[in-house]
Fold:
Amino acid sequence: MAQGKKLVIVESPTKMRSIQGYLGDGYEVLSSVGHIRDLADKKDIPAADKQAYGKYSIDVDNDFDPYYVVSDRKTKTVAELKRALKTADELLLATDEDREGEAIAWHLLETLKPKVPVKRMVFHEITKDAIQAAVGNTRELDTDLVDAQETRRILDRLYGWDVSPVLWYKVKTGLSAGRVQSAATRMIVERERERMAFVSADYWDVEALASSTSGFRVRLVRVDGGQLARGTDFDDAGKLKKAVVVLDEKRAASLALAVDAEGVGTVSKVEAKPGTRSPYAPFTTSTMQQEAGRKLSMSAKQAMSVAQRLYEKGYITYMRTDSTALSTQAVQAARSQAVALYGDTAVPLKPRVYKSKSKNAQEAHEAIRPSGETFRTPSSVSSELDREEFRLYDLIWKRTVASQMADAKYETTTVTVAVDTSSTPELDTQSVEFTASGTVYTFKGFLEAYEEGRDEKRNSQDTSDEQSLPVVAVGDELRMSDAEAKGHRTTPKPRYTEASLVKALEEHGIGRPSTFASIIGTVIDRGYATKRGQALVPTWLAFSVVRLLEEHFADLIDYDFTAALEDDLDAIARGEQKRVEWLRSFYYGSDQQVGLRQVVDNLGEIDARALNSTRITDTATLRFGKYGPYLEVVDPTAPDEKPRIVNVPEDLAPDELTAEKAQELIDAPVAGDRVLGVNPENGKVIVVKDGRFGPYVQENDPVSDDADVDESTGEVVEKPKPKRGAKKDAAPKPRTGSLFRSMSVDTIDLDTALQLLSLPRVVGTDPESGDEITAQNGRYGPYLKKGTDSRSLESESQIFDVTLEQALEIYRQPKYGAGARRASSALAEFEADPVSGKPIRIRDGRFGAYVTDGETNVTIPRGQKPEDITFEIAVQMLADKRAKGPAPKRGARGAAAKKAPAKKAPAKKPAAKKPAAKKPQTDAEKAAARSAAAKKAAATRAANAAKKRSE
Structure:
C-alpha cells in the first residue's frame, strides 16, 4: 500500500467491497471478518495466570478483568491488518455502529496498537453519499457502548459456565443455560404446560342463509334474549365465566329445523359504525423478524441473515435498530413514492412522526428502510437480488412507504335478524336472533401498499368471515333457509412461533432484538424445542431443564429479573452505571439481590430422578433418560416388581401425551423378533429387530420345534429365561446388519436382509496395490474401504451397485481439498473465497447441503435452499463460521489421556525386543497398538507402490 493511504477496517467482506468502490484510491478497505478475539479457552491461558483466570477466563477478584486472545483462525487476518497499518497514515474503524460493532472496533484497537491517528467512522446505510459523509464526520470510540457489550459478554460467561455444569450432571451432558436463552425456553415450556392443563369445552350454535335481493350468512347469537355461549365465555378449565346460554347438539339441531320450518325472519336492528385504521410504524429489528416469519415463513435467523446481505450490498439501512424514526429525506422519499404510485390523496397533509421506545439515544438509529434519498422500487432491483433478498426488500419497501400514507377509512355494518319460533311448541323457545357483519372500506389509504400479518388466535372459530351485505332496513322480512347446527370446541393458547416468541420477548423486555435470532436458534439447536410447521414445540428435555432452573435458580430465570438486567446494561451503555460495580453486585450479591456465586454455592441436594419425571397417570410416569423420553409403568398388583419401560414416539408433543394416549402406548402390542425366513446357505433363521440404536436384521440358530410362533405376526414368543447358574462358555455372536435409512422394519424382506448380512461387500481388487476394495455402511454413511484408506459414497444404494471401475475412479480423486470430489458431486461452484483463496462449493453431505472452501464447512440452515445461496452469501457464511472458531472436538480429553502412556514406551527397553509377546490391556495401549500398526501398514504400502513405479 502506498504511503499516505488511509486504512478502513470493516467486519464483513461484502461490506468491504461495497465501501471500497465509494472511497477511491486514497483508501484501502480491509475486513476483520467479524470478531478477531474472544475470551480464552482454558488451554490458552499461561500457567502463571491460571489461578486468576483459569475458571472463566475472567479474574473475578480483580475488577472482572477478562483474558482475551486472538482466535487461531484470525491470526492470518490480524497479520494482514498489521502489515497494511504499517504504511497507513490514518486508521478508520468502520464497524457497525451498535454495541457489538463498537466492541469489535475496540478489540481491533487493542490488538493492532496503531501509532497513527485513529477515528471511528459510522454510518447506517452503505450508499456513496452516506459513506463519503461518514468519512467527513468521524468521532471517538464510545467507551460506554464498549463497556455495555463487554459487560454482556462477561455476564453471559459467568452465567453459562456456572449454571450449565449443573445441567450436565443432573439432566444431560452437552446442555447449556443462558441468561436469555433459558428465559425463552421457559416461555415455550410454560405455554405447553398451559396446553397440557387445558380442558376443552363443547358448545353449539346455528348458521343460516338470510336472503333479500342477495343472500348472506347469519349466525345465532341469542335465544329468548339470552346471550349464546362463545369460546371466550369458558375458562381454561372448561367452566363458564358468566351466565350464558349453552346449546348441546340436540337442541341446536332442533333450533335449526325450527328456523327452516318458519322460513322467515325480520330485520330488528341495523347498526353502521365508521372507523379508521392507521398505518404501522417502519420496521425495527423485532417487527421485521415477526413479519418475515408471518408473511415469508422465514426464521428469525434467516431473516437477519438476508437483511444483513441487503444492508451490506447497499439496499437497506442498518438492520439492528430499536428505532422507528425516519430521516427527513426518507420521509420525503416515502411520501413522494406513495403519491407517484397511488395519487395525491394517498398521503396526509403532514408527515407522520413515529416515536421510538428505545431509551438509548446513543443507539437510536433510523428504522429499517430502503437506502438512499430516493427509494428503488422492488421491480427495479429484482434482477440484482436473489429470491429471499427480493422478498424481504419488497416487504421493507412496502412497510416504509405505507408508514407515511393516509389512514384507511371503513364502515362496519351489523344486521340483526329475529325469527319467531313459538310455532314449534316442543322446542320451548319463543324467538331467536341471528347477526351478520360486513365491513366496507370507503378509502383504502395505506392498505393499498401494505397490511400487517397476524399471529394465530385462540377460539378463532367464533370470528365470522367478512362478507358483503345487501342494503336492508329495520322491519324488512328476509327468507331464512339452510339452517345448520354447528359444533365448536374451545382451544388452548396456540404454541409460540418464532414471530410470536420474538414479540413476547420484546414485550417482557428480555434480551435485545438483535440477539433474538441467535437465541431462538440456540433453543432449537440444543434440543429444547422442535418446529412443527411454524410452531415451536418444547421437548421433554426442555421440561427437565426448566424444572431444574425454576427450583434451584428461580431468580435467574425470573422474567422481571432478566428484563432488569437488560435495563442495567442499557444504563451502562448510556454511561449512567459503572461496569465493575454492576458485575460485582451480580456475581457476589448486594442488598438488592442474591449473587450468582451464592446461589451456585448453596444449591443443596438435587434429585435428578425426580427432576426428569412427570406423572402422567397413577401407574405411568414420563421419564427423560439418556436415549430420550419413555414411560415407566408400574404394575399396581406388583408394585415392588421392576417397572415396565414403554418408548414414547419422538414426534409426540408433550400436550398430546394425555392419560388416554399413555394407556394406548402401554396397551400397544410389543414388537418382537419378526421372522423374515431362512438363509438357504446355512439354514439359520433371519429376523428383524428394533433395537436401542435403530432397526437391524440378525441371523439366529433355527427355531426349535417346541418354540412358540405367533402365526398372525410371525414373531417368536420368547420363553421365560432360566435362573442364573454356573457360567457357561460365551456363545459366538450372531451376524447382524443395520437397516438403511430408506428401509423399514415393517416392509423389509428376506432378500434385502440377506444382502445386509453379506456386508461388507467385496467390490474387487486394486490392480496396482493388490488391496481388496469393499463397500459398506458406517456411522457416517456409506463408504469404500481399501486397506486403511476409505472414501465416501454418494448414496446407500451404491453399496450394492458400485463397480470396480467406479471404485477405482473414486480412489483416483484427491481425498481432501478442492478436488476431493468429482465435479458432478458439487451442487454449485463459485469463485475463490477472499480469505482462503480456494474455490467455494456447495455439496450435499450426511447432514444436508453445506458450503465449503476445502478448509471451512458451513451447513446451510433449515428453511434455506442450496439454490438460494449466492457467492456473497457463501462468503459471509464462511466468514461467520471462521469468526466462531473451531468447535471443540468430542472426546478431546479422553484422547489426550490415551496418548499419555505412549510417551513412557521408550523406558520399557526389555519389552521393546518382543513387542508381540505382550498383548495390550488398557484402552490406551490398544489405541497405541492400533495406531502403530496402521502407520506401519501405510509405510509398507507406500514402499511397495514406490518399488512398483520404479520397476
